[in-house]
Amino acid sequence: MSLDQILAVLPPGSGEEALARQIDFDRLPAHVAVIMDGNGRWAAQRHLPRVEGHRAGIESVREVVEGSARLGIRVLTLYAFSVENWKRPATEVSTLMMLLKRYLRSELNTLLRNDIRFRVIGRTEDLAADIQGELSDAAAKTASNAGMQFNIALNYGGRAEIVEAAKRIVAEGLPADALDEQRFSEFLYTAGQPDPDLLIRTSGEMRVSNFLLWQIAYAEIWVTDTLWPDFRKRHLIEAILAYQKRDRRYGGINHPAVAGR
Fold it and tell me: Which residue numbers in the chain have pLDDT < 50?
């Protein structure tokens, strides 16, 4: 992807175009992870049911997936539903699952057309059979795509992921002296993918909410007060520009923000 690819979907002469022209495409984050927060507050501000915030958030998912692919991001991970979210009212959970199914069905051709691979990370075995079927179908149909890897974290918890990885290591009988950080990462949901370089959180909350706890050890964090349903390509570009202005240290000497480490 290139500057021309992202400019093709931005209004000519707009502020978004001006921002996009500032991006250094040689120093993009390899993996962008997003905590999508603020749907409920967005709805409350408009005196609407919470589920309307989730509905409105679907357009933001479209914007970020398309924008990331056009920019040339290698991996995008969106935090859609945590293991704690089952505590929400049953009607809200049901609506979230329905919206997920609708998104997969309506956007599958877009994913195929843009060469995007889809994958879900999390405890999929706890989901309803029809949801599992939709997820498996989307993953299978996009498996041969060679473009951006698009992960949806669904029924996901960072601590649970680490515990499950440890259980798999024990089950395989891996000797302790054969285990290091690189080997351990091969038992995580994101095995084979670069760790996030940039973690974005919407709605102004200053916490990581049990998301990719192992993987974000050295991620740059960018928080915006923008609520998720209002998040657009412009905000994504702003996050990337902020990332590119930072020195990445990894506990040592300064390094410029570069992809892939």
Answer: 259-261
| Closest to 112 (Cα-Cα) out of 102, 121, 120, 104 | 104
166 Cβ neighbours under 8 A, 6+ residues apart: 187
* Domain definitions of the chain by residue range: 13-246
Annotated catalytic residue within 37, 39, 114, 155:
37
| Angle subtended by helix axes 129-142 and 90-113, to nearest 10 | 20
Question: Active site includes 115?
Answer: no
Condensed to tens digits (0 to 9), the pLDDT of residues 141-163 reads 999 999 999 999 999 999 999 99
First to last CA, the chain: 20
The total of other beta-carbon atoms located within 10 Å of residue 58's CB is 16
Contact 224, 235 (CB under 8 A): yes
- 85 is known as an active-site residue: yes
Catalytic residue among 4, 39, 85, 155: 85
Question: Which pTM value belongs to this model?
Answer: 0.93
- What's the CATH code, domain 13-246? 3.40.1180.10
Contact 94, 49 (CB under 8 A): no
